[in-house]
Design a protein that fits this description.
By secondary structure, the chain is mostly helical. The radius of gyration is 17 Å and the shape is elongated. It starts with 8 loop residues before the first helix and ends with a helix. It folds into 2 domains: about 80 residues, lambda repressor-like DNA-binding domains (434 Repressor (Amino-terminal Domain)); about 45 residues, no CATH class. Helices cover about 65% and strands about 0% of the residues.
Length: about 140
């Protein structure tokens, strides 16, 4: 396992997530990236795009200099900013039934099992992320 330095981009990303009280899946959803992509960023695998840096900074009101170089401090009111975000709309019965159907599809369940094993996350978490991605992409 890689040792992440708190003075690196991956370390600051993890500090941000912990400060917000979010799971990796929740952060991935907020940033509209896959759980796999987010978890790799947090452990320093792969490069982060300028667009994603901008999205993180805009979403959480962070200075880019803190996120990329560690210059300055994490805003003290960070959790309050995140909590002030609007709540998602409730789903209707038809949408809930479609989500249940997606979660029961054999292909979706098999892929979720592979993801859960690879990333060492609960099957339910991997399944939820896959269903969400399918839902948001409009795939049947």
């Amino acid at each position: 396992m890689r040792k992440i330095k708190p003075d690196s981009f991956p370390g600051r990303l993890k500090i941000l997530r912990k400060r917000l009280g979010c799971t990796q899946a929740q952060m991935a959803a907020r940033l509209q990236v896959s759980l796999s992509r987010y978890s790799k960023l947090e452990i320093g695998i792969g490069k982060v795009s300028a667009a994603l840096v901008e999205k993180v900074c805009r979403q959480f009101g962070l200075p880019e200099s803190w996120l990329l170089q560690g210059i300055g401090d994490l805003p003290a009111d960070l959790a309050l900013q995140a909590e002030g975000a609007s709540a998602p709309a409730l789903l209707n019965e038809e949408q809930i039934l479609r989500i249940l159907e997606l979660s029961q599809e054999p292909g979706t369940r098999a892929l979720a099992a592979q993801i859960a094993e690879t990333l060492q996350v609960p099957l339910a978490q991997a399944l939820a992320v896959l269903v969400k991605e399918n839902w948001e992409s409009g795939r049947p």
